[in-house]
Amino acid sequence: MIAGGGKMEGKKVLAINSSKRKKNTYGLLQQLKEQLKEKNTEVEILNLFDYDIKECTGCEICLRKGSCILQDQAEELMDKLRGYDGLILSTPVYMGNISGKLKVFVDRTCRWFHRPELIGVPTLFVTTTAASGIKDTFRSLETIGFQWGAFPTDSIARKSKDLNRPVDEKEYKSFLKHLHMPREKYRPSTRQMIHFQVQKVLAEKILAIDKDYWEGQEWLDKNYFYDTKASFISRVTALLVYKILYKRIK
């Protein structure tokens, strides 16, 4: 319910499944889909292995020209991500990190590090593992969200010993809250504020196409993508990083 007792506005969420087996991680996504449906939130599960996504060649044409020269479905997926109110990124833990399929797709979104397009999209992270690697995997997923302009909320993890434990509403409480509230009420971390300032320096110093994009979004004179409740310490720390980096990059 929203303030005043009204019904929550319907929201659309995209859940990216990067596990080929559609078993443990996929099962958590199915639970989330059913539970969020009861919260007036529609979840679409996208299976990365259903799409043709070629490995990035590092040619940087997408950075300099705006689009990739590879002929596959990566651009189609990037277009799809832009159309949702929230995002669920999921992966099994492989070698202490995200799955190779997800990494291949993330590499193809590299221009979003320079020109972020998922600004203010709340993101929920889901992972499963036999025993270890959860912390590093979540940190990688969080960094991906930062690079795209999204922000993290909750994280749901299961080890082999508790795979059968049902998803509890408490585990996605923050995600659901931020789906239904103005993004300006989100309080970005110091790490997020610093990440924004790093991206801004690169936009100002490296590529003209980046600077034009940031100017068009009116971000160059801001402390973050939009007005937020970031702490004073976070803002000052991030600004200091910006000033140091700006002087060092010619």
From TrEMBL:
| Keywords from the named record | Coiled coil, Flavoprotein, FMN
Gene Ontology MF, one:
oxidoreductase activity
Q: Which InterPro entries match?
A: Flavoprotein-like_sf (IPR029039), FMN_Rdtase-like_dom (IPR005025), ISF_SsuE-like (IPR051796)
Record-annotated NADPH-dependent FMN reductase-like domain positions: 12-150
Record carries keyword Flavoprotein:
yes
Q: Which residues form a coiled coil?
A: 22-49
Per the record, the domain of life is Bacteria
**Pfam families the UniProt entry points to:** FMN_red (PF03358)
Q: What is this protein called?
A: Flavodoxin family protein
